[in-house]
């Protein structure tokens, strides 16, 4: 009888130990998940603070009219496909594209503000993207297919009163900071890319991000519209 009681006692102790291990493991896992989530939120808060008004958003640039001139230099453009898996949606019907929005972005978290991977990583954190990204060497990175709606424009209004600007626009990001504007390589690639897009779509409007959302956006920074428009005409 005593032996039987001891066996029952050992069995109960094992059950208690197993329950303790389970509760401890579950609690440790819950704490780990909490700190991972907290770290992500802190990163987002840090980004929001550092990026300020220029960062593109999921929510839904003076009005620029241009005379198109010259040939489309598509053969001279260095375009690299780097399609992302976030920051866009597939439209229910084909898009009618007539607008280009020009942005500025840079890597605020890393040691190199001109890092392509750093900028794309920040886009991923926010779940946003532009169709194209132009680095300091003039290399064009294709991030989102033109047929898809990229989350780049944010809340804004066109001069003709239209909203939901993401639906009918192409977003182009230039990598430059608030103190250092685009360089010659970037202007050349931007002009060539815009001409290429105009050969595919009837582009009627080219605007800066600040021109559609002046209350909350300031980019593209230090952008030379005169240089850009002259390049478009040539």
TrEMBL record:
Give the SMART domains listed for this entry: Ami_2 (SM00644)
Superkingdom in the source lineage: Bacteria
UniProt xrefs under Pfam families: Amidase_2 (PF01510)
Q: Does the keyword Transmembrane helix apply?
A: yes
Instruction: List the catalysed reactions.
Output: Hydrolyzes the link between N-acetylmuramoyl residues and L-amino acid residues in certain cell-wall glycopeptides
GO BP annotations listed: cell wall organization; peptidoglycan catabolic process; peptidoglycan turnover
GO molecular function list: N-acetylmuramoyl-L-alanine amidase activity
Task: Report the top EC class in one word.
Answer: hydrolase
Q: Where are the transmembrane segments?
A: 15-37
> Which keywords, in A-to-Z order, does the entry hold?
Cell wall biogenesis/degradation, Hydrolase, Membrane, Transmembrane, Transmembrane helix
Instruction: Domain (N-acetylmuramoyl-L-alanine amidase): give its ranges.
Output: 88-221
**Enzyme nomenclature, EC number:** 3.5.1.28
The record, for PANTHER family, names: N-ACETYLMURAMOYL-L-ALANINE AMIDASE AMID
Protein name per Swiss-Prot or TrEMBL: N-acetylmuramoyl-L-alanine amidase
- Please name the source species: Candidatus Nealsonbacteria bacterium CG08_land_8_20_14_0_20_36_22
